[in-house]
Each structure stands twice: as structure tokens, then as C-alpha cells.
Specification:
- The structure is a single chain.
- The protein has 16 helices and 24 strands.
- The longest helix has 36 residues, at 429-464.
- The protein is globular, with a radius of gyration of 25 Å.
- It has 608 residues and is α/β, with parallel strands linked by helices.
- The strands form four sheets. The protein has an eight-stranded antiparallel β-sheet, with helices on one face.
- The chain binds fructose -6-phosphate.
- Residues 302-305, 349-351, 354, 357, 401-402, 487, 491, 605 line the site of fructose -6-phosphate.
């Protein structure tokens, strides 16, 4: 989704803004722009495409005088991705420039009103409508704060905006509802951005802004107030402990491959401080105020996080004997669900800013339910909206395609299962002990296994990168992995792929099987292996080619065996998952795709 940055300070603002936008590139975008005060007035420079296009235009200008301004990377919602629709937008008087992330739902009604008053528009965006409403109120009120408050109280929808006024150039105003916005507090300079990495080289001191808050920054001060009535809000300054280095590629060709290879550390970090040294207990102090185990669980998430939730359902029901339902957040939020008051909602989100997941949390809270956020980004909206938070501790994930975050979500779900399994007394103590033991050695096993997995993925990718479609098959715990394998392949290589429960294939998709429609099976050593094997025979009977992730010694004849080391029970998932990710990565890289920023996708989906 769109990235926004604002700066007021002592440095030349434009390079700060552009570098900040570069660090927000992972959010996905299709155009970019900056706005600042030039010697001859308000200057806005925009370009369709990647930041290098904006760089080319900026190189022809003298941009070094301005010490404040705003910048934006746009992920199109209203209007096609072209230069007129790119941000910043300028109001019809030419005085204000504004950037926006989100969607203004009632913009058409406001646009009609402004058109009737003679305002003209240069773009198709909802942003330009909101900006002209602010401009109208600024003329009436004479001051920016009451104008902003009036305009924002009128609009419906989601936004993070930042406004720059050419008549007051050392100041930027910003506000948010349901779209991320953080304030970076520096020395003699202050920043606003959609995400912390945008200003991390300059400051680690941040203030997380909440929905309905408005902030005014200049070089030496900042104030937060409520949009509603401009009453002041006391805010705490937090200090970020991770650094820019953690958000760089570290010698890898892409962030995605770097992040896949970080998974051993991710597991270790997620376990850190949560396993008692005597190995007998999982410690989750975050959940101390929850008495015992929940009676029922309803998991709400999107995309890869939804797949992690589905995997969690299999495990929580089997081991902790807690009834679990898993639901895609965009469905849950509009379904008018009947929720038992004993139900604990688990909202899973890497970014913590996914609009549908946040709406699911709000709905559950309106019904009086407690929410546990399983989330990666500290201080994110999911973390703040939830009653309890278990951080997955995967570190910043930059590649749009989620990899290490899912690994951390699975680790956290496994810990929750062990924790609640002992509380319900339903989990066999031997399984509990063996799993904890296995978890301790898992990072090392994965570390050793990853290079060989990559080599095999590389070989298979060359063989199959000309496929038009793929079917991913798995059962039980590996059904969610089949869904995830298919999602990874389609999102970064643009090869069509479907994930199916292997036993469901005969109810329809089997009709697709022919020699040109390969299947990717997850056929690891578990109770369901004989069933999966029979399903694969059905594929072979239709001359379908098969790649199978399996274990040495298992009796399985397919076109391409991919043997992965054994690990006990659900821990095998942690070896299968990177194999799926690496296959998708190698195919996409071989095909020359933009692996870290696939077309049409955004890292943080802050609109519904
Ligand atoms: C896929 C992917 C998306 C996200 C989904 C939810 O690789 O990244 O499917 O998993 O948009 O995002 P979060 O977890 O941030 O809520």
C-alpha cells in the first residue's frame, strides 16, 4: 500500500524524502512524488513507475534549498496508476499539497458539492477531493488546524494524510484513521511516515499515532491532538531497538531469499525466553491474565497469515482439544457471525496493519470478546487494538511475499498449543516434552538443511518454470502448506497455482490433470501418508507429473522426489515450508520477475 513520508528539519528535505520512500518500497507502489517549497513557490514533482523515474526528474531540478516537505509512493485505488493520479496532489488554489494512504468512501458526494462551487479537479482521486475540502475550510477558518479538523470530521473511510502549506513551509500536518502513521522524533528535525524504516537512519525515537489523531510537526517541536475537537493528547516516545542493518539485503540478491534463510534465527527468536530451561514448560507471560485455556478459538487473518491460522487449527484441536474455527478476515467482518462469549479471537497479522483483520478485531470487541493479536510489528494497530499480544519476533519483513513471518507465526501457534495443551491436560506429556526438545534443535537442523533445499529448488525450477499451472496437494497439517505453496508461486512468478486438500482433488480439480499440468505434493511421513500416496496414484493414472516433498525411506514413486530430513510430528512443517518458498523463489527469479515487489501487490494491505 501507499508509503508516506513527511520531514521538517535542517537537512535538504528532498533527498531525505526520496531515501525514506526507498525504504518504504517494500509496501508496493506504481508511482511516486514529492512536494516542497521551491524558490518560486510550491513545487510538486511526480513520476509514474519506480523511484528511479522520480530520480530522473529530480536530477533536472535544484531541490536542495527546501528543508521540509512530503513524499509518497502510490498504490492505485481510485484512478489508474499515472502521473496525474500520483501524489502529492495540489489544491485548486495552488497553496496546499497533500499525500494520502487509504480510501475516502464518501468522496463522490463531497466532489459534487465542490464542483458546484466551481472547484476544478486534475485527477480521478479521492485524495484531491479531500484536499480541496481542506482548502475550502482553510479559506473559511483562516488556520490549518480547525480546517483539518472540520474536513476530517466530514470524511468517511480510512486515511493517513500529510499536508504541506506553501504559506507555512516549515510545518507539516498529518492525521490517521485505520492507516498506519508514525512520528519520528529527531534532534532539530521531525519525521512522519507509514513505517519506521523510512526515518530509521536519523532517529530511533518514535511516537505511534492512534486512529483519530492529528499531529503538527516543525523542525523543533511536535504536538498530537484529537481530530474530533483538537484537544491535546499526551503521547509516549518509544525507542526502537532494531536497526537499519536489519532492514537491508545483507549481500543477498533479494530480500525474499534473505528472509527465507533467516528462518532458523526466526524460530530461535520466537522461542527466546519462552522455553523454561528445564524444558518442561512453555512460558507466555503475555497470557498470564487469561485464566486457563480458552473454551473456543476463532482465528481471523488474511493471506499467508490465514494459512498459518489454518495450520494452527489442526494442531490446537488435535493436541489441546480446543474447538477452533478459522476465517478469512474479509469474510468474517461482514458475515454477522454468531460468536459465543467464551470464544477467544486470535488475529494473526505480520504487519499488524491489515485493514480486514483490524475490522475483524473491532467486530469481535464490539461483541464483548477478548482478542489475542499474533503479530510481528511492535506497536502496530493489531498490537494496540488487541487485549493480549504475542509477538512473533521475526524482525522486519521487507519482501512483499511473506516467508519468515509465516515461520514465526507457526512457531508461536505451536507454543500456544503446547501452553494450552498442558492447561487443558489433554496433551500427552510425552508429546509435550518431545516437541519442546525437538523445537530446541530445530533451528540448527533447518540451518543445515536450507542450502540443500535451495539447490534442489534451483534444479526443479529450471525444469518447471515453463508450466502454465500447478496443483499443490497436501492433507492434514500439510493442506494449509499446499495453499501457501500455491500462493507463493502465483504471487511472485505469476504462474497459476491452486492449493487443494489432496482428498478433495477427486471432487473436481482432477479434471485438469494432464501431462502439462504438474502437481506439487507434500507427502511427508505422518499418519496420512498412505492416503496422500493413493491420491498421487490418481494423478499418475491421468499422466500428471509430480514433484513430491517426502522423507528418505518412504515408499513413493513420483517423477521428482524431494527428500527432506525427518523431524518429529508438526516440526516437519518447518522444513517443508522453506522448500515451497524456495521453489517459488527460484522459479520467479529464473523468469526474471520482480521478486521482492511483485506486480499489483502491496506489503501492508491497509485498504479493504
Ligand atoms: C502473501 C502475503 C499476504 C499477507 C496478507 C496478510 O505472501 O504476504 O497474503 O499474508 O496480506 O498480511 P498480514 O499478515 O500483514 O496481515
Amino acid at each position: 500500500m501507499c508509503g508516506i513520508i513527511g520531514y521538517c528539519g535542517h537537512r535538504p528535505a528532498v533527498p531525505v524524502l526520496v531515501e525514506g520512500l526507498r525504504r518504504l518500497e517494500y509496501r508496493g507502489y506504481d508511482s511516486a512524488g514529492v512536494g516542497f517549497l521551491h524558490t518560486d513557490g510550491l513545487k510538486v514533482i511526480k513520476a509514474k513507475g519506480k523511484l528511479c523515474e522520480l530520480d530522473k526528474k529530480l536530477a533536472q531540478e535544484n531541490v536542495f534549498n527546501a528543508t521540509s516537505g512530503i513524499g509518497h509512493t502510490r498504490w492505485a485505488t481510485h484512478g489508474e496508476p499515472n502521473e496525474p493520479n500520483a501524489h502529492p496532489h495540489v489544491d485548486h488554489t495552488g497553496r496546499l499539497a497533500m499525500i494520502h494512504n487509504g480510501i475516502i468512501e464518501n468522496y463522490q458526494e463531497i466532489k459534487k458539492e465542490l464542483l458546484a462551487e466551481g472547484v476544478t479537479f486534475k485527477s480521478e482521486t479521492d485524495t484531491e477531493v479531500l484536499l480541496n475540502l481542506i482548502s475550502k475550510y482553510l479559506q473559511e477558518e483562516g488556520e490549518m488546524l480547525p480546517a483539518l479538523s472540520r474536513a476530517l470530521n466530514r470524511v468517511e473511510g480510512a486515511y493517513a494524510i500529510a499536508v504541506f502549506d506553501a504559506q507555512n513551509p516549515g510545518v507539516v500536518h498529518a492525521a490517521r484513521v485505520s492507516s498506519p502513521l508514525v512520528l519520528g522524533v529527531g534532534t532539530g528535525e521531525n519525521f512522519l511516515a507509514s513505517d519506521i524504516p523510512a526515518f530509521l537512519p536519523y532517529t530511533r525515537d518514535v511516537v505511534f499515532l492512534e486512529d483519530g489523531e492529528l499531529v503538527r510537526i516543525d523542525a523543533s517541536s511536535w504536538q498530537v491532538m484529537r481530530v474530533r475537537d483538537l484537544s491535546p493528547v499526551e503521547k509516549k516516545v518509544d525507542t526502537i531497538t532494531w536497526d537499519v542493518q536489519a532492514a537491508q539485503k545483507g549481500g543477498h540478491k533479494h530480500f525474499m531469499i534473505k528472509e527465507i534463510f533467516e528462518q532458523p534465527k526466526v524460530i530461535q527468536d520466537c522461542l527466546c525466553g519462552r522455553l523454561a530451561t528445564d524444558l518442561d514448560e512453555v512460558r507466555l507471560p503475555e497470557l498470564d491474565c487469561l485464566e486457563g485455556a480458552p473454551k473456543r478459538i476463532h482465528i481471523v487473518a488474511c493471506g499467508t497469515s490465514f494459512h498459518a491460522g489454518l495450520w494452527g487449527m489442526y494442531l490446537l484441536e488435535q493436541w489441546a482439544r480446543i474447538p477452533v474455527q478459522v476465517e478469512i478476515a474479509s469474510e468474517f467482518r461482514y458475515r454477522d457471525p454468531i460468536l459465543d462469549p467464551d470464544t477467544l479471537i486470535i488475529a494473526i497479522s505480520q504487519s499488524g496493519e491489515t485493514a480486514d483483520t483490524l475490522a475483524g478485531i473491532k467486530l469481535a470487541k464490539q461483541q464483548g470478546l477478548k482478542v489475542l493479536g499474533l503479530c510481528n510489528v511492535v506497536g502496530s494497530s493489531v498490537a494496540r487494538e488487541s487485549d493480549y499480544v504475542v509477538y512473533t519476533q521475526a524482525g522486519p519483513e521487507i519482501s512483499v511475499a511473506s516467508t519468515k513471518a509465516m515461520c514465526s507465526q507457526l512457531t508461536a501457534l505451536l507454543l500456544l498449543t503446547l501452553h494450552w495443551g498442558s492447561k487443558t491436560g489433554k496433551l500427552d506429556p510425552k508429546i509435550h516434552r518431545d516437541t519442546l526438545h525437538g523445537l530446541r534443535s530445530l533451528p540448527e537442523l533447518l540451518e543445515k538443511t536450507l542450502p540443500a533445499l535451495r539447490d534442489r529448488a534451483f534444479e526443479l525450477a529450471r525444469e518447471y518454470s515453463d508450466a502454465d499451472s500447478f496443483l499443490y496437494l497436501g492433507r492434514g497439517l500439510y493442506y494449509p502448506l499446499a495453499l501457501e505453496g500455491a500462493l507463493k508461486l502465483k504471487e511472485i512468478s505469476y504462474i497459476h497455482a491452486e492449493g487443494y486438500a489432496a482428498g478433495e482433488m477427486k471432487h473436481g480439480p482432477i479434471a485438469l490433470i494432464d501431462p502439462k499440468f504438474p502437481s506439487f505434493a507434500i507427502a511427508l511421513d505422518d499418519d496420512l501418508f498412505p492416503k496422500v500416496k493413493s491420491n498421487l496414484v490418481e494423478v499418475q493414472a491421468r499422466s500428471g507429473e509430480i514433484i513430491a516433498l517426502t522423507n528418505v525411506g518412504l515408499d513413493l514413486e513420483v517423477d521428482h522426489r524431494w527428500d527432506v530430513p525427518r523431524a518429529s510430528g508438526p516440526l516437519a512443517t518447518f522444513l517443508a515450508l522453506p522448500a515451497l518458498q524456495l521453489f517459488a523463489y527460484e522459479v520467479a527469479d529464473y523468469l526474471g520477475k520482480d521478486v521482492d515487489q511483485p506486480r499489483n501487490l502491496a506489503k501492508s494491505v491497509t485498504v479493504e
